[in-house]
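Mods, move this if it's the wrong board.
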Amino acid sequence: MKLLAAIMILAVPAPTVSVSAPDIANYQALAEQDLRLAMVGHRLALANAPFCARKSRNPGWVLHDKAQYPDAATAQAAFGFRLPVAVSAVVPGGAAQALGIKPGDAIIAVNKVDFTSPDLVKGKRASARLEKLQDMLGEALDTIGTANVTLMTADGVKSVKLAPLAICASRFWVDAKSKLDAGADGVSVRVTAGLMAFTADDEAQLAAAVAHEMSHNLLGHRQRLAANGNSDKQILETEIEADRLSVWLMANAGYDTQAALHFMERYGRRTDLGIFSAGTHLRWKNRQKVMRREIALIQQAVTEDRPVPPPLLAPGKM
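Not the wrong board. Structure tokens:
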């Protein structure tokens, strides 16, 4: 009763603050890009699950924290936060959608840990609460396969038991930067808003960028470089492997692998420094050659049975 009473106090609407319509639209557009990226990432991770040594149970939702936005009033106007952490978007066909979870539903607790408490991550960076929730949820799902989540919805408090399928391990998030860039940290795939806009007209080209970064995570490249050194030669080896694996991930998810070649040319022409390019990456035409060799192997391997096992994810290759 004490927890529910505290939640109801937190859920009282804040005083109205004037915010601009363009700012609200910008926040909402970023949330739409979060969903777009989550859908592409989920499709790649689900289709290639049989071949991933590292798996995680992804609920098929995008969460956000009011504290992560520079302007709290604009965030409130854009998303109507009922509580500090809420569901920003739900991936079609995912576990969250199957349970009737909707955008706007707010997180009260995960396995009885109260995420409405202002003391949970007091004095820490804005992303700390959301990171704590993601880590706790991920640990519960990956160890016992389920997690109990209590939500504040438009219809009141709702409790659900999440039990999503195990798919290739990766989280996906949009970085607000305008630079054409993407990265992988061993767990997450980061794609900038600039790169999202660059691929706005072609989902398969976005999938090519995501599959490349996801490949770094699936192949444990960050850990390998940390253990063996990160010379230009060693980084180049991981980049070539990521290019090779990316088209297999795409093919298994039903994306046209030719989109990877188109993306590489467009991206390369925009970012390639020519003879001044770093030794950590091949020039874009050579990256296309690497991909074409893998695409030819995919075409040879494709039968009526899908998906096709990627050679780099075969046992003993990790």
